[in-house]
Write a structure and sequence with these properties.
Length: about 625
Amino acid sequence: MKNEPIYNLLNAINYPEDLRKLNVDQLPEVCDELRQDIIKELCCNPGHFAASLGTVELTVALHYIYNTPYDRIVWDVGHQAYGHKILTGRREVFSTNRKFGGIRPFPSPEESEYDTFTCGHASNSISAALGMAVAAAQKGDSKRHVVAIIGDGSMSGGLAFEGLNNASVTPNNLLIILNDNDMAIDRSVGGMKQYLFNLTTSNRYNQLRFSMSRVLFKLGILNEERRKALIRFGNSLKSMAAQQQNIFEGMNIRYFGPIDGHDVRNLARVLHDIKDLQGPKILHLHTIKGKGFAPAEEHATEWHAPGKFDPVTGKRFIANTEGMPPLFQDVFGNTLVELAEANPKIVGVTPAMPSGCSMNILMEKMPKRAFDVGIAEGHAVTFSGGMAKDGLLPFCNIYSSFLQRAHDNIIHDVAIQNLPVVLCLDRAGLVGEDGPTHHGAFDMACLRPIPNLTISSPMDEHELRRLMYTAQLPDKGPFVIRYPRGRGVLVDWKCPLEEVPVGKGRKLKDGDDLAVITIGPIGNTAARAIAQAEAKFDKSIAHFDLRFLKPLDEELLHEIGRKFKRILTVEDGIIKGGMGSAILEFMADNEYKPTVKRIGIPNIFVEHGSVAELYHICDMDEEGILTKIKEFIN
């Protein structure tokens, strides 16, 4: 790699065993070099930036103290783990991070034995790590340590509390590290707190405590229930003395902290001292998101994934978008404000993605009518259902891949009651560099069987605005609008807000030899392929924008079924159970017998890469659609 800095220590660290050869006093220098390496790489190869800078010391301390990969480190919100990747054999290829064919954007067991569990979505670390800890105990593997790292807002997810609750009653030696970057528990102060912390994490204290408990157990004075009661009592005493309380007090989980998560030597000492303690433990760290890079420390949100930037000045290189079509998310955000100004019942809900989905526009204009509920997709949907039940009209915006986590809530808390909740699914379809955990592949196939839902997808910005307007009209029930990440096709995106008849598609172009049926913005790609095909092959091709997956436009489909012997469906969703499957079902149910071929996301987990690259390998780009048309009509 050209112009690579010469590091005193990092260049000799290929794997954690190399790190463990160093003296503990050398760890701060390792952290400085690792932080600079992350900055150097990400300034020209964009990725998730601020979160990984905030976990540098934690990453170094964990791999220094624990015998990884034998010991299990389970990351939560994998965008914190770039330092982990660099220290575990991937530094030489880290420049390929998020690139097609390169290393993955999030930890994956398929990539490295050091990556113990998939962690593209938040809040799953405690449950997964608890499972590993129990598995180790079941197999008699008493030497294996398991550590879950949760933070960066992940404690707001319900699954985290489910795992925590189970960890409190299941025999285990799990260590849960709460990486609190001012998004979780409040900071505590006071000399007594520090004294108690130093006492309760010392080896001598814990050895004495363990010996006494073992003797009391043998004498029959102490049993498991009394032990748990003593832990609760001890936590209560610590809370009184330190003038603070935490959510772990009554859960039979020993609590340590909070401590400075950027003091790597002290962190290594603490991890060493509590590593072999019996029972579940919580270590609470305070860290700074973006630590070590001033612009990221000051503006952590915009430096979450900043794109390319100057590593010296911190200047971000933002592309000139003048004269380009807007992002779909911005059309959503501005249209929502427009609708809310006219309809006082409208409120906005998002699970921790206000800037990513442009809900921040409504938050700035009408702060009392917009709600960020944290990383809690299921709650976002049920919360929206509760508001809808009592007369409000929520627009609940969730990334498509994250909506999977609220499937039960959609059925039980919205659809069964036919409540007027508008589910706006941003990032539908292939999203690009974030890879398989983030592609919005499954929403159409998952939602299509649910009664009472209206499911739609706009082909362009005008259609998005009209569908949003339609969804908030009376008696529309639960209404899904899915649209992709990225830009639309219309520079002049504003249009009058008019009702779209629910369940009505559009004939965009007539033809005789082949019917192409599309849904959503991929219809624009199909339209270009159709124009090429007609010019090259002298065929007449009809194009239909289905617009609604549910209810289907049966009148339009009867017309197609009667006229065409060959039908090609194109969708930016999983091919199994999606729009093409709905067309096949309709044709079979009505005894039409056309030959139907389908283009869509194949029944695999598509890897990461640019959207253009992924469309190409899935035959969903203009070239792939043109090739399929040629095969079909010749």
